[in-house]
Amino acid sequence: MVVVQVAAFFLGAALVWGTLASAVRVMVIPRGLPSFIARAVFEVLRAVLRPLMGGRGGDYARRDRVMAAFAPIGLLVLPLVWLVLVLAGYTCMYWSLGTRTWRDAFTLSGSSLLTLGFESAHSLPTLALAFTEAATGIGLLALLISYLPTLYATFNRRELAVAMLEVRADSPPSGANLIRRYHRIEWDGGLTQVWKDWETWFADLEETHTSQAALVFFRSPQPGRSWVTAAGAVLDGAALRTSTVDAPRDPEAHLCLRAGYLALRHIASFYDIPHDSDPPPDGPISVTRHEYDEVCRELEEAGIPLKPDRDQAWRDFAGWRVNYDTVLVGLASLTMAPSALWSSDRDATFRRPPLMPRFRRPGRDAGNGDDPV
Predict the structure, then answer these.
(1) Residue 115 vs residues 135, 136, 188, 308: alpha-carbon distances, Å
(2) Which of the residues 7, 177, 223, 237 has an alpha carbon 20 to 30 A from that of 145?
(3) What is the pLDDT of residue 364?
(4) Across-strand partners of 306?
């Protein structure tokens, strides 16, 4: 009997310790450290919601409504799971310290965790445990209350840029539309400011979407918008401007491209999306030469001067695109982003990654041979 009691105590302590470690990883440490508990909660929730989506070939509006609720519901369920695990852990410890029945141990644990006070401990060890459990319950709720405003402030900051991009690149956005719009209003130099702003946006995205992982699945207020397709449109626009448009060299476009593909790679690494951290310049990309030529034709019809050597321009564009092609398409698939040119309109060629994978250190993330920065 003593052996069973000792085992129950250590089992309960392990449950409580693991739960607190999960909460700290998710809500306190400013670094992408996945938690097994958080991963399990989001995986199970997605499995529960998947039948409601109607499959990938089904109605997008229906799938979007379900996915819009996915991350918020997950964030509400996760603290409840933490509280249940703490309740179970302390129940085991109370029973191991001599509480007569499991029911009595459960009652004491619930009273202490929720600070209800209708059941009190009678020995010094159980009284000490009751105090720590009450502090644990209050602490978990305080973490949630302080975490949500920070999360939504970050979400609002991200979505402001996404909404402004619709003005500049239409909906769904595309890099060609971005260049065409600025040419139409005779403000070609204005693109330099776009690259500067989005370089900052990408840096912010990398930090927030790995340290606050649920943000990846928070969808835009408008069903046709997505942070993934917006990122793809800006990167494609910068790649087209650098490789194809016959205009003076713009270093800000190069810096925006590098900031963008590094950010997407780090997020993809967190979600275990397979990708080459140093792809060759002539590596395969999901955009075909025919699709590229079609966009070039549209740009020419809009009066935008293009470089005369189309073959070299294609090689330069592909050399930039290969840096972010796999991770862009992978993140679009993971988040079920709305259809947009050259991002969510193509199939991912890898297995679906887990939502909250084991942490592994990202690769070198260097650019390919054509990267000038």
Answers:
(1) 9, 11, 63, 74
(2) 223
(3) 35
(4) 245
Which helix (H) or strand (E) segment is 142 a member of?
Answer: helix 124-169
Of 372, 82, 345, 67, the residue nearest 232 (C-alpha): 345
Cβ atoms within 10 Å, residue 33: 17
For the entire predicted model, the pTM comes to 0.85
Q: Does residue 218 contact residue 280 with C-beta atoms inside 8 Å?
A: no
Please give the Cα distance from 236 to 371 (Å, whole number). Answer: 15
- Cβ-proximal residues to 305 (8 Å cutoff; 6+ apart), any chain: 245, 246, 247
Grouping H, G, I as helix, E, B as strand and the rest as coil, residue 59 is coil
Q: Which helix (H) or strand (E) holds 275?
A: none
Residue type, 209: H
The rounded distance, in Å, linking the Cα atoms of 265 and 365 is 7
Short-list 340, 32, 253, CA closest to 331:
340
Instruction: Give the number of residues written for the chain.
Output: 373
Bond from prior residue into 353 cis (ω within 30 degrees of 0): no
Backbone phi, psi, residue 245, to 5°? -75, 135
Rounded CA gap, 181 and 36, in Å?
Answer: 46
DSSP state of 353: P
Under 8 Å CB-to-CB from 71, ≥6 apart: which residues? 214, 215, 217, 218, 219
Per-residue burial over 54-65, b if 16 or more Cβ lie within 10 Å, else e, is eeeeeebeebbe
Handedness of CA 104, 110, 112, 117 (dihedral sign): negative
Q: How confident is the model at residue 323 (pLDDT cuts 50, 70, 90)?
A: very high
How many H-runs (helices) and E-runs (strands) does the chain carry?
A: 12, 0
pLDDT confidence of 58, banded at 50, 70, 90? low
Cα distance between residue 258 and residue 253, in whole Å? 9
Measured distance CA(344)–CA(269) in Å, rounded? 19
